Structures are given as structure tokens and as C-alpha cells.
Amino acid sequence: MAKTDKQRVTLFINPELLKHSKAQAVINEITLTQLIEKALIAYLPEEIKIVKPKI
Q1: How confident is the model at residue 20 (pLDDT cuts 50, 70, 90)?
Q2: Exposed e or buried b per residue across 26-47, where buried means at least 16 C-beta atoms within 10 angstroms of its C-beta
Q3: Cα 20–21–26 angle (5° rounding)?
Q4: Is 36 helix (H, G, I), strand (E, B) or coil?
Q5: Phi, psi at residue 43, to the nearest 5°?
Q6: Taking the domains of the chain in order of start, what are their residue ranges?
Q7: Which of 2, 11, 3 has its CA nearest to residue 33?
Q8: Share of the chain above pLDDT 70, in %
């Protein structure tokens, strides 16, 4: 098995959303992994700030 900087993830997702995602990946000529990564990059902020609430 080749070494990679990726991590395997198991998700439970709506079957119709998965079907749509797979179709879009084929249209874009990319893998489902690449499609999901691009979507997450576009959705998530560049910097994550976790602030502990003051009590």
C-alpha cells in the first residue's frame, strides 16, 4: 500500500446526495474525494479559532 497524506473517513450521507456527488465528480472528471475536498475547502474558513467561553 502506498504512503499517502490522506486519512480514510467513514460517513453516513443521504443516498441521493451521494448519487448527485458521484455524478458531478464524473462530469468534472475528478474523483469523489477531490470533489468533497474542494467543497470542504470552499465551505470552511481558512483559519480556525476555538474560543473557550468565559464562565
Answers
A1: very high
A2: eeeeeeeeebbeeeeeeeeeee
A3: 100
A4: helix
A5: -80, -40
A6: 14-45
A7: 11
A8: 96
